[in-house]
Write a structure and sequence with these properties.
The chain is mostly helical. It contains 21 helices and 3 strands. It is 64% helix and 3% strand. The chain starts with a helix and ends with a helix. Bound molecules: zinc ion (ZN).
């Protein structure tokens, strides 16, 4: 058995090598590559991706997994070997159940759709991309149908990003959340908006980067096993557990941009850096789901990085770094500015209170598209209708409406959005549980000390990599299931103090 397990690990390591090499190509493409490299780079990445897929879906992997099943069954569920075999089998089944021809037809279609979308959005022309989107929905249904036995057609697609989560459960949680959020947003936006002009002055780009890096070092992001570069869109990437990188985007006239995206990406990166090193090069060696990953970025960005206590420690340092810009701005002015709530059209720019409404609109619409209860031609109006009822605004066009996010035009429809809001909900649930175990954490944060919190997250979440699904992790950590209560409490406490609710 040990020899078969070794064989499996060797195969998985080679798959991982190909995938991580693809990640290096992508990182280089978005940080350093001259424009002339684009065409060849696309082909190189596609070749490596194909080789990795072929290697992983080789029947030899299936045979090894079958041979190892009795060994896995003889071990406790949480044993490392048993978990490796279980998680690899789940991924193997996901990768082999979709016929190769269907997948390759879909990728061809998807690349064409993306090209059309890049022109449709600036031209504000949904009609040119609509026939592509109709085909994408058809493909999405066929891909879901490769996994029969689902309750809702979106379930298999959701499972790719948030394993074990189902449309019905998420719908119920989101409906509950929406019911609580809409009145909060109404109460806040009826009041005088915060003045955020202090964040929109001129800030030296290198000083902005240095300030953010100092914070994430103190958070516990290990720069011996990571680095930060600039890219058009911030992201986190990993080449192995000893090399987890982040990127950011700096705006000279907007302090929010680099600072909070740095804190956000550092949260993703610290999760990966904290995984048990024995899992490197296997399917266990990565964060477990989109939602849990986002819970970590949001925890460090918002629950820590936009909190009053945190800035009691860091605001004097920010004033010292940018004396001209902040010497006349009081602590409260700054704190209100970084927590400004407003009705806005763009999801990625939204504040903590309104952000989830943007996500839930997309989630609900994509379920309807997949169910066939909403036709593509009616999508723009359905979008505007929901923005009106949930956020009280109407986009002047489709560019900032239904064409806004790349997700539906760069992959299948279904499963791409729920993780953002699940992550927000989980961020408060995990933070709450950590504080119950260590009530001094908030005081430590206001002294710029993060090791207790970071240590708790490593022990309870990071180290496990993909061993447990999100639901299993929540059960192990809290003894219960996912609940929105800590999240709603957090929002009410924080924003009730900023804006009387
Ligand atoms: Zn994120």
């Amino acid at each position: 058995m040990k020899q078969k397990l070794q064989e499996l690990k060797q195969l998985l390591l080679e798959v991982d090598d190909l995938q991580m090499a693809t990640a290096v190509l992508y990182w280089d493409q978005t940080t350093n590559m001259p424009p002339g490299g684009a065409a060849a780079r696309g082909r190189q990445a596609a070749t490596l991706t194909r080789l990795a897929h072929e290697k992983f879906t080789d029947p030899a992997v299936g045979k090894l997994l079958d041979a190892l099943q009795p060994y896995a069954d003889s071990l406790p569920y949480e044993d490392d070997d048993a978990s490796l075999i279980r998680v690899t089998r789940r991924q193997y089944e996901k990768s082999t159940k979709i016929p190769a021809q269907l997948l390759s037809d879909f990728y061809t279609h998807s690349a064409a759709t993306y090209q059309v979308w890049t022109k449709a959005r600036p031209a504000n022309d949904f009609t040119v991309v609509a026939p592509y989107l109709e085909k994408t929905i058809d493909f999405s249904r066929r891909i879901a149908d490769c996994f029969p036995g689902y309750d809702h057609i979106a379930d298999p697609l959701i499972d790719f990003n948030d394993e074990g989560m189902k449309a019905a459960t998420i719908r119920a949680i989101f409906a509950d959340l929406r019911q609580q959020l809409v009145p909060i947003v109404q109460a806040i936006t009826a009041q005088e908006p915060a003045d955020a002009s202090c964040l929109h002055q001129s800030f030296d780009e290198n000083k902005q980067l240095a300030f953010g890096q100092e914070i994430i070092k103190q958070y516990g992001y290990d720069l011996e096993r990571g680095r930060q570069d600039k890219s058009p869109h911030p992201f986190t990437t990993k080449f192995n557990l000893g090399d987890v990188r982040i990127t950011t985007r700096v705006k000279q006239n907007d302090l929010n941009e680099a600072l909070f995206s740095t804190l956000h990406e550092a949260g993703h990166a610290m999760y990966e850096q904290g995984i048990n090193r024995d899992f490197d090069g296997t399917p266990l060696g990565t964060g477990t789901s989109a939602g849990v990953h986002e819970s970590q970025s949001r925890l460090w960005e918002n629950l820590v990085g936009r909190s009053r206590g945190f800035w009691q420690h860091y605001y004097p340092k920010l004033q010292a770094a940018f004396p001209q810009q902040f010497n006349d701005a009081s602590f409260d002015t700054f704190y209100q500015a970084i927590n400004k709530v407003s009705r806005s059209l763009i999801r990625t720019d939204a504040d903590e209170v309104t952000y989830n409404l943007h996500v839930m609109i997309r989630f609900d619409l994509e379920l309807q598209l997949l169910e066939g209860t909403l036709a593509v031609k009616d999508l723009p109006e359905a979008w505007h209708g929901r923005y009106q009822s949930d956020l009280g605004i109407h986009a002047p066009n489709d560019s900032d409406g239904v064409l806004q996010d790349v997700h539906w035009y760069d992959g299948w429809v279904g499963g791409g959005f729920q993780g953002y809001t699940l992550g927000n909900i989980m961020s408060a649930l995990f933070f709450d549980t950590a504080v119950q175990a260590h009530p001094d954490i908030p005081n430590q944060i206001s002294r710029g000390q993060f090791s207790t919190l970071h240590g708790w997250l490593k022990d309870n979440i990071y180290q496990h990599g993909s061993k447990f699904t999100a639901n299993e992790l929540i059960q192990r950590i809290t003894g219960g299931t996912l609940t929105i209560d800590p999240y709603i409490r957090y929002l009410r406490n924080k924003f009730g103090e900023l804006y009387p609710l």
